[in-house]
Amino acid sequence: MLKMKKLLLLLCVSSSCLAAEPSAERQTEIRALLQNSCSGCHGAGLQGAMGPSLKPEALANKTDELLITTITNGRKGTAMASWKSTLEPDEITWLVGVLKSGK
Fold first, then answer.
1. Whole-model pTM?
2. pLDDT digits (tens, 9 = 90+) for 34-87
3. In terms of residue numbers, what domain contains 86?
4. Residue 4 in domain
């Protein structure tokens, strides 16, 4: 049963069926968070610094699942913090789409 749930989640994430788009106001807040908080490690233009680049070309070979998990839980042994107390799961999925599209 657990394998089936993981497969369903993976299929949904890859087709963006889980991502309810945040309101326009919340999108603005999340974009501000990205620029104000993430740029400290990922660089002012998110081109990479202490943390890796978040530009679409750098993320092209990363799965949505990997990026969602990284944003949600952070990365042990690195400065990458968990954002699950700040962002809802749908917001994280939306953000991954924004990052990968460069929009």
1. 0.78
2. 999 999 999 999 999 999 999 999 999 999 999 999 999 999 999 999 999 999
3. 23-101
4. no
